[in-house]
Design goal:
Layout: H1 6-15, E1 18-22, H2 31-41, E2 45-49, E3 55-56, E4 59-60, E5 74-77, H3 84-93, E6 98-101, H4 108-116, E7 120-122, H5 127-135
Parallel strand pairs: 1-2, 1-5, 5-6, 6-7
Antiparallel strand pairs: 3-4
Helix pairs in contact: 1-5, 3-4
């Protein structure tokens, strides 16, 4: 389902434990790095996906979603909008429950692929901001 309201977003965030973060940067100044650090501080398992890295934030980094050896609840995407359709297809193949496209990342084809396979989809929203606002009352 396309997730656009607060209650459904809360449900997705509460049901998620393991997040594969596609495009996670090792650079501390990058938004993906700050978001991953925040999510880890909130108890989520964050799995970095970046083909140019072997480890980020002390976690083994994988070149693609198919290489991850554990079940993934959410695929959180920090990539250009045009790069998301194959990521959505990979999220479906690995059995993810949701596809989260970060702020500024919008792709109807990627969303349609995920929705057709039964994944929850959030588009153009920051998972850190939404988590803080919906589950922590804006305190982060």
């Amino acid at each position: 389902m396309m997730i656009e309201n607060a209650e459904e977003m809360k449900r997705v965030l509460r049901e998620t434990r393991t997040i594969a973060m596609v495009g996670l940067s090792p650079n501390e100044a990058r938004p993906s790095h700050r978001v991953a650090r925040y999510l880890m501080s909130q108890g989520y398992t964050v799995i970095p996906v970046n083909p140019g890295q072997s480890e980020i934030l002390g976690q083994t980094c994988y070149p693609d979603l198919a290489s991850i050896p554990v079940a993934v609840d959410m695929v959180d995407v920090f990539r250009k909008s045009e790069d998301t359709p194959p990521i959505a297809a990979a999220a479906v193949r690995i059995g993810a429950k949701s596809l989260w496209l970060q702020e500024g990342v919008i792709n109807a084809a990627a969303a349609a692929t995920a929705l057709a396979a039964g994944l929850d989809v959030v588009m153009d929203r920051c998972v850190k901001k939404e988590h803080a606002a919906l589950l922590l009352g804006g305190n982060y």
